[in-house]
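Researcher: We're reviewing a set of sequences before deciding which ones to prioritize for further study. For each one, I'd like a predicted 3D structure that I can look through quickly. This is Succinylglutamate desuccinylase / Aspartoacylase family protein. If possible, include the structure in token form so it fits the rest of the review sheet.
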Amino acid sequence: MSSTAHPYPIGTPGKPWGDNERAEWLSRQARQRSYEQDVLAAADRLGSRFDVEEYGRVAYGQDAYPLVALRSRSWNNDLPVVLITGGVHGYETSGVHGALQFLEQRAANYAGRVNLLVAPCVSPWAYERIHRWNANAQDPNRSFREGSGVEESEALLRLVAPIRESALLHMDLHETTDTDESEFRPALAARDGKPFEPAGIPDGFYVVDDSAAPNPDFQQAVVKAVEEVTHIAPADDKGELFGSPVLARGVIAYPLTEWGLCTSITRAPFRTTTEVYPDSQQVTPDQCNAAQVAAVCAAIDYALAN
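Model: Here's the predicted structure for Succinylglutamate desuccinylase / Aspartoacylase family protein, in token form for your review sheet.
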């Protein structure tokens, strides 16, 4: 059913938002959790084992957020580099907590084997408000290109620039939630003055490959490992997940660079976006975090072996 039948509560169907509509949308956003308590405090605790750096700051009104990354303390330029990003979409909780949990529980297994660079929460304003966009109604995960004007994306690009050409692996940890269909995609359609066309939410975990440079065996290794923790999303009646053809069990692909997605920011030969489904009756938040950790470990193991 299109947005003209049940229009989004902000704006006029068929007309892109202007400043007034964006201001109205912003006025409806409320802080629901604390980036300082959930992310910065965890980074401080991990500071005994990793170098913690502030790679930028974003400020919206009275709210200012340091952007933090953690890197291997014994950085060795002779070792391969693994980049892990979470919270590009702030509402996708296990991306943030899964990245931190990997550092707490499993990163030591890779000491002396890889250099780790982890940005656990790319979008802190959105994390606190459990939202997809930043305060300017911009989606960071369509903005990873120079000059995008999206502060969260541009700051991460600057952080990653020194390893852009040399990284072995990039894991970008995401979720697909029921609110994608009930709130975020309708809001996107309203913002852009387009009709909303429901697509359905995949029931389970899947990954996103690069359609311009697919790596199917790698993607399947990640899916196989995560299946030990949570269920894999089956294809729908059209053989698709979220409107994209299923290339293999639990695998779809997007044009990463064309769309300005986070996994386009390095030339790593191994890259994937994880998509955990936290709204399933079959999983708990702990399982969602564990699925992200399992995906990261499987990806590192595969990359090192291949």
